[in-house]
């Protein structure tokens, strides 16, 4: 595997899930695979889980790891070609990428949506430059539009916790929830993309105006009545996202309504009561009593901690496959 961006990059999903369980049973079985190989993890944005779980996964495989926080100690990077660089940016991405690539074998990049220009974000201008100019396998650690390591870990968590009863597939509901600041669409985009590829009954619920980009949600069922969407759910996946700008491009990246008016969308016990004793998922970090109430996230049906722990597993499968293709 040379690029990890979309669900299609991982190939057959049941094979990937089986490999995840194989890794989980003995995560140190491939220590020789990564010997004398270096992973470089580049962060343009903050991270707790992605940073730690990906480092741990690389170490499980015997790799060396270098982590760069671009905004803490590196030169400020210009990303646009043709700019006269007389501002605060000392170095251009077009030099920085091949230089960084010369010190490693595999590159992971986190670079969130900037919300300046929808086309720039949705064309993945930054990550595509890494793919084009590094000559190395590149995996996305949350880009402008996708967070595949998260969606893969989410799918592993759903598979591990699905106890088939009379239904053959779990009902998985992804719900928008309120947040005070504008957040990217990467997590819901990838979750939708992966759920549509998996064997689940998938429903999305959000207020009008938050329609996700069709390239990720395809013909997924959208139910604007949140309570109706929750009925009979086996898994509830909560996430805030800002306006994707699908119907009104001028609203791209905006919080459409004052969050105080949207607090009825917070996932609470009354919402969970109409589900099929659903498990609760969130990628974290989560703002309590905005996205989800204390009692729901602390309940025995909350899977947020094992879900985060599975980030080590999803990262290890991805790094293992990239090492195997070097
Ligand atoms: C980020 C987001 O919503 O995309 C990262 C989530 C993994 N969240 C925040 O910036 C709070
Ligand atoms: N879920 C997730 O990617 O968390 P971090 O932003 O802390 O890496």
Tell me what you see in this structure:
The chain is of the alpha/beta class and 326 residues long. The protein has 2 domains: 3-146 and 311-325, Rossmann fold; 150-307, Rossmann fold, CATH 3.40.50. It has 12 helices and 12 strands. Strands 1-7-6-2-3 form a 5-stranded parallel sheet, with helices on both faces. Strands 10-9-8-11-12 form a 5-stranded parallel sheet. A two-stranded parallel ribbon has the order 4-5. Helix 3 (93-101) crosses helix 5 (125-134). The structure holds N-acetyl-L-norvaline (AN0) and phosphoric acid mono(formamide)ester.
Question: Short summary of the structure?
Answer:
This protein is α/β, with parallel strands linked by helices. The chain is 35% helix and 14% strand.
Name its key features.
single chain; binds phosphoric acid mono(formamide)ester; 326 residues; 14% strand; 2 domains; Rossmann fold; 5-stranded parallel beta sheet; alpha/beta; binds N-acetyl-L-norvaline; 12 helices
Bound molecules: N-acetyl-L-norvaline, phosphoric acid mono(formamide)ester
What is the CATH first-level class name of the largest domain?
A: Alpha Beta
Strand content: 5-15%
Radius of gyration: 20 Å
Unreliable sequence segments: none
Largest sheet: 5 strands, parallel
List the helices and strands and how they pair.
Blueprint: E1 3-4, H1 13-25, E2 38-43, H2 49-60, E3 64-69, E4 77-78, E5 91-92, H3 93-101, E6 106-110, H4 118-122, H5 125-134, E7 138-140, H6 148-161, E8 171-176, H7 186-197, E9 201-205, H8 214-217, E10 221-222, H9 226-230, E11 235-239, H10 269-273, E12 279-281, H11 294-297, H12 304-324
Parallel strand pairs: 1-7, 2-3, 2-6, 4-5, 6-7, 8-9, 8-11, 9-10, 11-12
The protein binds N-acetyl-L-norvaline (AN0) and phosphoric acid mono(formamide)ester.
